[in-house]
Amino acid sequence: MLQESKGYGVISQWLEKKDFHPFEFQEQTWEQIMHGHSGLVNAPTGCGKTFSVFLGTLIQYINEHPKNYQTIAPGNLQLLWITPLRALAKDIGRAMEAVLEELSIPWKVGIRNGDTSTSERQKQKRKVPEILIITPESLHLLLAQKDCSSVFAHLQWIAVDEWHELMGSKRGVQVELAITRLLGMQAKKKNKISLWGISATIGNLEEARQVLLAPLQEEGCIIRASIDKKIEVHSIIPDEISEYPWAGHLGIKLAEKLIPIIEASNSTLIFINTRGMSETWYQTILNIAPQLAGAIALHHGSIEPELRAWVEDALHAQKLKAVVCTASLDLGVDFRPVDTVIQVGSPKGVARFLQRAGRSGHGPGEISRLYFLPTHSLELVEAAALKQAIVENKIESKDPLLLCFDVLIQYLCTLAVGEGFDANTIFQEIKTSYCFADISDEEFKEVLLHITQGGIALNQYDEYHKVVLEQGLYKITSRKIAMRHRMHIGTIVSDAMLKVKFLGGGYVGVIEEYFISRLDPGDVFTLAGRNLELVMIKDMDVLVRKSSAKKSIVPSWNGGRMSLTANLGAILRETFNKALVDETEIEIKSLRHLFQTQAALSKIPRDNELLIEQIESKDGYHLLVYPFEGRQVHEAMSAILAYRIAQIMPISFSIAMNDYGFELLSDQPIPVDDSNVQELFKTENLFADIQKSINSAEMSKRKFRDIAVIGGLIFQGFPGEHKKARHLQSSAALLYKVFEEYEPDNILFRQAFRELMEQQMEEHRLRAALERMYHSQILLCFPKQLTPLAIPIVVDGLNRNSLSSEKLEDRVRKMQEQLSKS
Amino acid sequence: MNAPIPYQIQDQTCWISPQRAIFWENQSTLLLSDTHFGKTGHFRKNGIGVPQAVFQEDMQRMVDLLGFFKPERLIVVGDLFHSAANLEMDLFAKWRKDFEQLELLLVMGNHDILGDQCYQSNQIAIHKGIFQQGPFQFVHEPMAFTEHPDSGFLFSGHLHPGVSLSGMGKQNLHFPCFYFTKTTCILPAFSRFSGTATVKKKKDNTIFAIVNHQLIEIAR
């Protein structure tokens, strides 16, 4: 029994002295850990979830060493605490150290992540701390050390914090793989590792447990904290709403409304969806409320570590009134002084919305207060939908990823850099993970071939060199390749950054490839407060000259690509039912004018209807469809529809989409009318049409970029090897082209296609969506001008796909003719 | 072989080939740029498994061009080899032996970092800076030398020119291209394992886009 154990006695005495009373879920967790079991703790942040697992391990340790737990330290790693965020590590480490000191347990706590200094690493190497708080990337870096098995030799507990955030991402797969290895290392020893996940509420907690514990091959348990968190959501309503959703950059205009909220609160976190916009917001708030100077700070991923640490400390110490931040402060850090959160722009999902709301009002019984500030007026509908979702407790699931060969390839190279691996042992190990449970012998062989022989080669003229087989062990023997691999461990692929330089030399800054690749030479853009004219892009450098042009383009960032979840989409469709009918909700009421315009020009779709608009403009012929299924589904569906229409006649489309609908744009009238419109949504031949549309629209191209980086095909260079490294650089688009043409069977190239099929074009899900639309009442309208629903899609069309059934040569000729006419 | 198109420069006849080459008929000279031979090998040697078939195809295309035009001389205006020597050089050397009669001149580019020995053994004459032959001049980097209209028409490479076309309905297409002004020509990169840098159609230049296996002159 827990209560009778020595460890429990020590811990509960200590808690009592501090007048803390353990929650039921904490005691349940302790009991499970005491018996060496594994499981998943489901608790909101700020409710002692860290203590549920951490104190549990201490109880077990004291029970095992009742006499000398205060006098002798084990001197080796006992508890590995995996956390996705660097910002979390320090916080948790500090809390743990305080407990250990008060209990006089002589353990050391170490932190290992990208911010850890080399000297600290050396110290950890000489003497491994009892507790190591680590990110998934740094854990893999440890596995790339020659002596890694000795580091983990006495490991007893693994805790994975924020598991809901990791699962469903490639970082989650990294964690899964690392766990199979850590368990594999213990296989021959007696001690059994117990594995604990900590997760916020998601729709599929059971599955989350299954995925995490799969390598243990035991059931484990889920312990739920029954703590009811009160959440208050307020929308910030503009005084005046134009008929058009995007008129006048609504977001920034509303900045003034934030000041009274900030001033009335203790500390406020202001979440912005993208890094670029966070800079703009920070500046704007300072401009309109100069009195906040010094009491407001900026926090995002590309800010220097020291500065970030300072902001975090200042937040703790209640020195800041507000912090403008991105997802960098999304997770689990408990900044007690924070009592208000402002979300700028749609959070795109219920779970993320709750997560952010939960950053405020941490203490048990306190209320989380969140203000929603729309960046365009239609987002107010999303706010209404989100509120409804919270009432109905409709929280999304996170789908675990399967068979991520790019991550596997990286992992195998990591092991090859470290102690080397035996193919059979590792094959058996990875098969215990959820991600690779279904990997076939052939697939594993193919992966091994990829890392040892590198695909298609010209036998005697080939010198492919990466992983070699030496006395039964796969190893990386080249120091250069090993070093390069270590630099590239990780699965977070940020957009490629290009250096911006003046023609005559002189460095300006860095800019995202995504933005710059859309500019033509001669275009003027703003960077670091200067107007610059693009001269050309050469290698990885952007060459510019100063410009005195008045008009310039301000870089836009990628963050806005996040998709509305399907879950929220359904609630959104229902919310539109209320437009002009039920105005009890302030958000719906304030949009009356916009809805009236939409209704006058076209129609407002109810949830049993599908609105399709055909509009002619100076850009060409637009076909707009509004399924409200989220950007991801729309990308798939638009490709299928474009493909099907292109079968009727040779036609070319440029395709844009947002969370509400999508646009097919052509230079010629689109052959869709009452007689054939319903047929476009039929589910016969769906599978074949999906495959063909993916290929014609080259949709896997974007997926391939991440895969190529994770799988080690794209080399980003590292300091000190500038010149030589340049000869190894190539863009993802070029590699895609080369593989498509010369080696379409390549395992990484195929994965891009497969990921698309599984995550976005999943037949089952698309079939259900198409089925729904096929049976909806289709409203085919021909508005005279772009409607309020259409404008955000047409305007926001940076990320366009294209699909054509015309011959390339014909298209070029047609373009030439169009130009000579105009 | 898709038909090359004739292009008159001063009193000289040149043929532009959609296989990314120019044939200078009067001097029986084939002109290539940025072949980047050995690039796939360089990547592979460093553990990046790109398919070597690209290199093979590039070599084959060069052989096809030599068979078609039967030139006496081949001029490469820079970046013949991508980087340090590797085994792909052996395939190149083998090809070189098969075409022993062919004179080969390399106008050195920034990627041409091999030792002189390497060029000698493959009977490659090398030239640094501007090479002059009759009314024509050849150089690697077009930017490195200001135009001298008096000293002759200048052929160069280095840039890997490409052209973007846009049409109604926000359609965009992008192709590698030949870029001509009155006094210069920038060749497209011969290697298919290479990106492009966008050039723009202006009043006083002529652009031929390589569309599949055809050349299409860009009007605007």
Helices and strands in order, then pairings?
The complex is a heterodimer of chains A (about 800) and B (about 220).
Chain A: H1 6-17, H2 24-34, E1 39-42, H3 49-64, E2 79-82, H4 86-102, E3 109-112, H5 118-126, E4 131-134, H6 136-143, H7 148-151, E5 157-160, H8 163-166, H9 170-186, E6 194-199, H10 205-213, E7 221-224, E8 230-235, H11 250-253, H12 258-264, E9 267-272, H13 275-288, E10 296-299, H14 305-316, E11 322-325, E12 338-344, H15 350-357, E13 367-373, H16 379-392, H17 405-417, H18 423-431, H19 441-453, E14 468-470, E15 473-475, H20 479-487, E16 497-502, E17 507-512, H21 513-516, E18 524-527, E19 530-538, E20 541-546, H22 566-576, H23 586-590, H24 592-601, E21 609-617, E22 620-626, H25 631-648, E23 652-657, E24 662-666, H26 686-696, H27 700-710, H28 722-726, H29 732-742, H30 747-760, H31 763-774, E25 777-781, H32 790-795, E26 801-804, H33 808-821
Parallel strand pairs in A: 1-6, 1-7, 2-4, 2-5, 3-4, 5-6, 8-13, 9-11, 9-12, 10-11, 12-13, 16-20, 21-25
Antiparallel strand pairs in A: 14-15, 16-17, 18-19, 19-20, 21-22, 22-24, 23-24, 23-26
Helix pairs in contact in A: 1-3, 2-3, 6-9, 9-18, 16-22, 17-19, 25-26, 27-29, 27-30
Chain B: E1 5-9, E2 12-17, E3 21-24, E4 29-32, H1 39-45, H2 53-69, E5 73-76, H3 88-98, E6 103-107, H4 116-121, E7 125-127, E8 131-133, E9 136-138, E10 153-156, E11 161-167, E12 171-180, E13 184-186, E14 197-199, E15 206-211, E16 214-218
Task: Kindly estimate the percentage of residues of chain B that lie in beta strands according to DSSP.
Answer: 25-35%
The overall number of domains of chain B is 1
- Structural Rg of chain B: 17 Å
* Helical segment count of chain B: 4
The secondary-structure class of chain A comes to alpha/beta
Largest sheet of chain B: 9 strands, mixed
* SSE string of chain B, helices as H and strands as E: EEEEHHEHEHEEEEEEEEEE
Overall domain count of chain A: 5
Oligomer: heterodimer
CATH architecture of chain B: 4-Layer Sandwich
What is the overall shape of chain A? globular
Helix content of chain B: 10-25%
Helix content of chain A: 40-55%
- Let me know the average pLDDT of chain A: 87
Largest interface, with counts of residues having CB < 8 Å to the other chain, equals:
A-B, 66 and 54 residues
**Spans where pLDDT lies below 50 across 5 or more residues of chain A:** 556-560, 719-724
CATH fold call of chain B = Purple Acid Phosphatase, chain A, domain 2
Ends distance of chain B: 28 Å
Cα end-to-end separation of chain A: 86 Å
